[in-house]
Specification:
- The complex is a heterodimer of chains A (400) and B (317).
- Chain A is mostly helical and 400 residues long.
- In chain A, 74% of the residues lie in helices and 0% in strands.
- Chain A has two domains: 98 residues, no CATH class; 268 residues, ABC transporter involved in vitamin B12 uptake, BtuC, CATH 1.10.3470.
- Chain A is globular.
- Chain B has a two-stranded antiparallel sheet with strand order 1-2.
- In chain B, helix 1 crosses helix 10 and helix 3 packs antiparallel against helix 9.
- Classes of the chains: A mainly alpha (400), B mainly alpha (317).
- Chains A and B meet through helix 7, helix 13, helix 15 and helix 16 of A and helix 4, helix 10 and helix 12 of B.
Chain lengths: 400, 317
């Protein structure tokens, strides 16, 4: 009985519906901007889809771009689940990337790949993890808000890379870039390049998928994940329950940093093969959008990263239409604003659902009256309710 | 003698670097004191910088149009534009009670993307360079004072004096008027203020819009004083976040933020002008660039332990 009563309620907006609405509104906002400069939005979106998905090579590039977005999205999402806001992904990426690049430069070329790949993967994760750990330490021990400390660490990493490139891995011909890493020392693989027409798709994509599974496993299946989430939802309650809050904050930021460090590795030693001086990777901020849009679940992060990957790769084809490529960033930013204001979106949908439910309720009771059914609406099963509502709607229409 | 020449070239620049930070931090002060966490100072300042650049470039291109008037109109436009953008944050955090940190981040990204997008359509390259910024001038009489005159009153920008008077005005408004008391109370115990018949939502709107106006002014100051161009690539290099850090370091107090922003301004000067001075020439560019951010982190470590943040900052009401 209780179950029936529970099912007979207006539906609530699911996170998926809210996310899709945010995407929809983001696209509307992007269209308004395109219209504003006197261009046709449909042309623009067609070009974006064309640029991202029209050939095997383009799909490969889109997945290559999505790779780092998945990893950063996971990083932000993981920190989020544990109550922390990691906007230092850019810096952690730079640190992971420079570690990988320096190792790629100095490790012997005849080293077997099976040995080489794990070394750079672990090194990048450890370096990024250390960078994240600093923010965690500052938060746990000195009460420094992680948002401010991670931003400062982003800029420190930026200048550190600025210093390290000329010191260790400079390209003598172009003195603001690092020397390109030879193919055997990147994450790229011959067979992946062959099936995707020499795209940027690399082993990083598989690392990203593996990490999505690992994050899901840690959060859902381990005591560590449980205590991290407990700290995230109520710090004081967790402390009372005997969970080491300071330790949790530090571990959580270190794991988030490690994920971003891996993103940096796939970005600088897979997707691209050089690092530039004086360039802050924007992907660190896009990762926030990925995490929020994906409702911080690993699967959601995966799909929203693909969506943003399409936007970011496809915008290259916009040049022909005269629409500035920044439209993609505008759409991404609008999407985050609407995911941040998800209260508005879910309120909108909940109201819609409630209205339609009330209409159905009215129709169903009318139908029951006509049938001489003495039960009240709340006693019906979902199926009966739906069919009665349908019948009732006809009755009400005829009555009018 | 060398020390004096270094000092007399560092201090005026440090003051120029301080003003945008001071305006950003003061904006943050209004917002956080009224109870809204404002992490979008960066975005608001950037948007102010861009809007003033766009307006000034258009006006200065008109033949015969006064350069100074163009600057004034540009600054006002920047304040208006950033105030409009801050309304988005106010609406999200006050009416919709959404997560203010996320909303702030979204505004930062939105500001970067929209200003880049518009800059691309205006100039094609994304960089906007104005013909002429504010001309430095000596203050009559005061600049004649030995030592202090040369450090503080020689070759100053007039925007500096506007910023400083706004700082003084804000201190008076927040600490010497009943309006200020109410605004601050909204950030500490909003329900108590509400029961006294004050409209908390309205006060918070005022706080956030004030932060928009001031950050917009700060962004415009960057453009018309030392930068001279809006650069889409580097934006404002995280100055807005430095302003927030200065707000924390200054313990959410007007005098505190004046001191902390000047400290950061000094660090920025050393980072940006380090190459000019023989004292710093041995230091690699990377370390000099890192210096203000590392100094900020250390300052935060020292000051965050006993935080006197407004109690209800970040709490929806």
């Amino acid at each position: 009985m209780r179950k029936a009563a529970k099912t007979l309620e207006a539906r609530n907006a699911s996170p998926l519906l809210v996310s899709l609405s945010a995407v929809f509104l983001g696209i509307i906002a992007g269209s308004i901007f395109i219209l504003f400069i006197g261009k046709n939005p449909f042309d623009g979106f067609e070009k974006i889809l064309f640029g991202a998905l029209s050939s095997r090579r383009r799909i490969g590039n889109t997945l290559g771009m999505s790779t780092q977005l998945i990893l950063i999205g996971l990083s932000v999402a993981f920190a989020f689940k544990t109550g922390l806001f990691n906007i230092g992904a850019s810096g952690q990426m730079l640190v992971g990337g420079i570690t990988g690049s320096i190792l790629a430069y100095y490790l012997p070329m005849d080293m077997p790949r099976v040995l080489y790949l794990p070394i750079i993967v672990i090194a990048a994760a450890v370096a990024g993890g250390f960078w994240g750990f600093i923010s965690g330490l500052l938060k746990a021990k000195f009460n420094v808000h992680e948002v401010v400390s991670t931003i400062m660490l982003n800029w420190i990493a930026y200048w550190m890379v600025y210093d390290f490139i000329p010191r260790f891995i400079i390209d003598p011909t172009i003195s603001v870039k690092s020397k390109p890493i030879p193919l055997e020392h990147t994450l790229r693989a011959e067979w992946l390049r062959n099936i995707t027409g020499f795209s940027t798709l690399n082993y990083g994509f598989f690392i990203a998928i593996a990490m999505a599974v690992v994050v899901w496993f840690i959060l859902k299946k381990t005591t560590l994940g449980f205590s991290l989430k407990a700290v995230g939802s109520n710090r004081f309650c967790a402390e009372y329950a005997g969970i080491n809050v300071s330790g949790s904050i530090m571990i959580s930021m270190a794991i988030a940093g490690a994920l971003s460090g891996l993103a940096g590795l796939t970005y600088y030693c897979g997707y691209s093969e050089i690092m530039e001086m004086g360039k802050m990777p924007n992907e660190g901020f896009d990762g926030i959008a990925v995490a929020l849009l994906g409702n911080c679940s690993p699967l959601g992060v995966f799909f929203s990263a693909i969506f943003f990957g399409i936007l970011k790769m496809g915008r290259g084809s916009l040049a022909a239409t005269g629409i500035p490529t920044e439209i993609a960033d505008t759409i991404i930013a609008t999407v985050i604003y609407f995911t941040a204001t998800n209260v508005l979106l879910s309120a909108f949908w909940n109201e819609r659902f409630r209205q339609s439910f009330e209409k159905k309720e009215e129709a169903a009771s009318a139908a029951m009256k006509a049938n001489g059914d003495a039960r009240s609406v709340s006693e019906l099963s979902r199926k009966e309710f739906e069919s009665l509502a349908k019948a009732g709607r006809h009755l009400l229409k005829e009555g009018r | 003698m060398e020390f004096w020449s270094v000092l007399s070239s560092i201090i005026p620049s440090a003051i120029a670097y301080t003003m945008p930070l001071l305006m950003g931090a003061l904006g943050g002060l209004y917002s956080e004191r009224s109870g809204v966490t404002n992490l979008c100072i960066e975005g608001l300042m950037l948007f102010g910088c861009f809007s003033s650049a766009a307006v000034i470039v258009k006006l200065q291109a008109i033949p015969g149009f006064s350069y100074t008037l163009a600057l004034v109109i540009g600054i006002i436009a920047a304040m208006a534009a950033s105030a409009l953008l801050s309304l988005l944050h106010a609406f999200a955090s006050i009416n919709l009670k959404s997560n203010q940190v996320i909303s702030g981040t979204a505004i930062n990204m939105l500001s970067t993307a929209v200003s880049l997008f518009l800059a691309q359509t205006i100039t094609g390259s994304g960089n906007i360079t104005i013909v002429r910024g504010v001309i430095r001038s000596n203050i009559p009489l005061l600049s004649e004072i030995p030592i202090i005159g040369q450090l503080l009153f020689s070759r100053t920008y007039w925007t500096t004096w506007i910023c400083l008077s706004l700082w003084l005005f804000s201190w008076f408004l927040l600490y010497r008027t009943s309006f200020g008391l109410r605004l601050r109370a909204c950030g500490e115990h909003p329900s108590a203020v509400a029961s006294a018949g004050v409209n908390v939502h309205r006060m918070r709107y005022i706080g956030v819009i004030a932060s928009g106006l001031l950050s917009g002014l700060g962004g415009a100051c960057i453009l018309v004083t030392y930068a001279g161009e809006y650069n889409a690539g580097s934006g404002i290099n995280g100055l807005g976040f430095l302003a927030i850090a200065a707000l924390i370091f200054g313990q959410w107090k007007p005098l505190g933020i004046l001191g902390s922003t000047f400290f950061f301004g000094l660090c920025m000067t050393i980072a940006n002008m380090g190459k000019v001075f023989p004292v710093f020439q041995g230091i690699p560019a990377g370390y000099l660039g890192m210096f203000p951010y590392a100094a900020t982190l250390i300052a935060l470590i020292l000051s965050s332990r006993k935080s006197s943040a407004p109690l209800a900052s970040g709490e929806p009401f």
